[in-house]
Amino acid sequence: KLFFTDYGNAAKVERCDMDGMNRTWIVDSKIEQPTALALDLINKYVYWVDIYLESVEVVDYQGRNRHIIIKSRQIRHLCGLAVFENYLYTFNSDNLSIVQINRYNSTDVQPLARLDNAKEIRVYQRRTQTAVRSHACEVDPYGMPGGCSHICLLSSNYKARTCRCRTGFILGSDGRSCK
């Protein structure tokens, strides 16, 4: 799945399949400017920063069990968001610091380090990188991912895929070749 925020005409947090299909709004009320998003892949939670409402909130993948993690004026200066164990990590562009927020105890907020010019933060952890033995976009004997001549996108599950073409090309009637 792909999760993303939008604060155009109607602010929302959404999800869809990697090929753009099955687009679903998971948060579409009491939200104004969601600017950063992070996933807890183990527990299937979506966290986001709303700089207008000055809050960090969370819902599950279906948009249920929503609650506020922290609400504070300092939230309006947060850029990026990452989850690791019991904490959320973000960057405060006002005082140029990496901030650690306990996601279960909103009074536990700590500045960790100072950086001059960050806009995003990521945490990489081996156990959250799920291993899949085989998937629909594996390279075929002819060197084409999923049998697609240009781009292979996983669809509703790891066994389904959609072929797409690079800019300037159109997908042929076979659903695999780009012309």
Automatic annotation (TrEMBL):
Q: What's the protein name?
A: LRP1B protein
Pfam families according to UniProt: FXa_inhibition (PF14670), Ldl_recept_b (PF00058)
Which GO BP terms sit in this record? canonical Wnt signaling pathway
Q: LDL-receptor class B repeats at which positions?
A: 1-43, 44-87
Domain of life assignment: Eukaryota
GO molecular-function term, one example from the UniProt record: Wnt receptor activity
GO cellular component terms, semicolon-separated = plasma membrane
